[in-house]
Amino acid sequence: MSQLQDNFGRRFHYLRLSVTDVCNFKCGYCLPDGYQSSGKPQFLTLSEISHLVSAFSQVGTQKIRITGGEPSLRRDFTDIIRIIADNQKITTLATTTNGDRLAKHAKTWYEAGLRNINVSVDSLDPRLFYQITGENKFHQVMQGIDTALEVGFDRVKINAVLLKGLNDQALPQFLNWIKTTPIDLRFIELMETGLGSDYFQQHHVAGRQIKTWLLQQGWQLDPVNIADGPAQNFSHPDYLGRIGLIMPYEKNFCASCNRLRVSAKGKLHLCLFTEYGVTLRDLLVSPLQQAELIARLHGQLVTKKQTHFLHQGVTGVTQHLASIGG
Ligand SMILES: Nc1nc2c(ncn2[C@@H]2O[C@H](COP(=O)(O)OP(=O)(O)OP(=O)(O)O)[C@@H](O)[C@H]2O)c(=O)[nH]1
Ligand SMILES: C[S@@+](CC[C@H](N)C(=O)[O-])C[C@H]1O[C@@H](n2cnc3c(N)ncnc32)[C@H](O)[C@@H]1O
Ligand code: SF4
Ligand code: SF4
């Protein structure tokens, strides 16, 4: 079966699958007022997820990241992990979490087949963590990270959104942490979203200045691995951890785009900032629909745009990243 490819020669072997829009945190850049429910949510069922993963795996998907909202809030989260891990073509299974449930469940998730975990930690100062996320859970999240390291996950990455006036002076504190802890720390430039425009104006800061500083301090840019995605990664002989920078406003950021997204309600998003999602759910009812589903994926891929239009302030259908999983 032919691989998913767009008109710019980019191949898509990485699926970011959102399994819920619901979240229990209130990050200022994402859901400052918390998750607003509008009736009983109808998120993809286990059976639909299984059909979806099967189709994507037949057209080249090797890596799946389960995301949300907060994916671990789903009561069947461990079953979701198991179903995806059972697919032999998926060689990398990851999740991105706010870490709230990590200390309690890391071992169970690992045993179900999860091997890579990204945890969002915007500050190492408990008070600032509370201020940014709306939750006083810094110590609980850090305990979760320790548990994940003990359990033996292949990769533990930490995501921090760079925020002017909040955590943009915290680099030394973060560096101190990764000196002796083998984690990958990634700074993500704040991205504008439909509902996050004012926050963006107030707190956006470019990651480029961190790059310049790191290079001055002897950090070296790692060679690009085709499976890496858009982060630029840096290593230093005196540090056990690594640093990654995700800078979506940099030139050519999208040239290495290798990922597609499916929302918790089963819509395909060709870009994080696409203008619309394409319904897949009608083709997730039965395994007999796989050929039709695959044909729809191929048909959509050729319409994927070369880049996002964030520089012009066009944020597409994405009101906040909890709606599509970042
Ligand atoms: N604009 C843009 N931002 C992205 C993209 N991929 C990741 N990001 C941003 O980086 C954040 C962190 O991503 P993660 O969920 O940790 O996953 P990842 O960057 O794909 O991580 P790895 O799989 O470990 O390379 C996302 O929530 C987004 O904010 C992308 O393709 N485009
Ligand atoms: C939407 S969350 C979903 C997973 C989980 N709830 C978490 O926070 O890790 C995924 C990632 O998106 C990032 N994110 C959310 N809104 C963002 C924005 N406006 N700009 C940049 N990153 C953002 C978060 O920091 C998080 O690392
Ligand atoms: S970034 Fe993640 S934890 Fe924070 S509000 Fe959004 S979905 Fe929730
Ligand atoms: S912004 Fe869109 S096109 Fe660019 S890397 Fe992200 S998903 Fe791909």
From TrEMBL:
Reactions listed under catalytic activity: GTP + AH2 + S-adenosyl-L-methionine = (8S)-3',8-cyclo-7,8-dihydroguanosine 5'-triphosphate + 5'-deoxyadenosine + L-methionine + A + H(+)
Protein's UniProt keywords contain Iron-sulfur: yes
Sequence ranges assigned to domain Radical SAM core in this UniProt record: 7-222
InterPro entries according to UniProt: Aldolase_TIM, Elp3/MiaA/NifB-like_rSAM, MoaA, MoaA-like, MoaA_twitch, MoCo_biosynth_MoaA/MoaC, rSAM, rSAM_sf
EC number: 4.1.99.22
Protein name: GTP 3',8-cyclase
SUPFAM superfamilies (UniProt xref): Radical SAM enzymes (SSF102114)
Swiss-Prot/TrEMBL keywords: 4Fe-4S, GTP-binding, Iron, Iron-sulfur, Lyase, Metal-binding, Molybdenum cofactor biosynthesis, Nucleotide-binding, S-adenosyl-L-methionine
Binding of [4Fe-4S] cluster 1, residues: C23, C27, C30
Binding locations of S-adenosyl-L-methionine: Y29, G69, S120, M191
Protein function: Catalyzes the cyclization of GTP to (8S)-3',8-cyclo-7,8-dihydroguanosine 5'-triphosphate.
Gene Ontology molecular function: any one: GTP 3',8'-cyclase activity
CDD domains per the UniProt record, alphabetical: Radical_SAM, Twitch_MoaA
Matching SMART domains: Elp3
Pathway as given in its UniProt record: Cofactor biosynthesis; molybdopterin biosynthesis
Family classification: Belongs to the radical SAM superfamily. MoaA family.
Annotated binding of GTP, by residue: R16, R65, T96, K157, R259, L260, R261
Residues binding [4Fe-4S] cluster 2: C254, C257, C271
Co-factor binding comment: Binds 2 [4Fe-4S] clusters. Binds 1 [4Fe-4S] cluster coordinated with 3 cysteines and an exchangeable S-adenosyl-L-methionine and 1 [4Fe-4S] cluster coordinated with 3 cysteines and the GTP-derived substrate.
Assembly description: Monomer and homodimer.
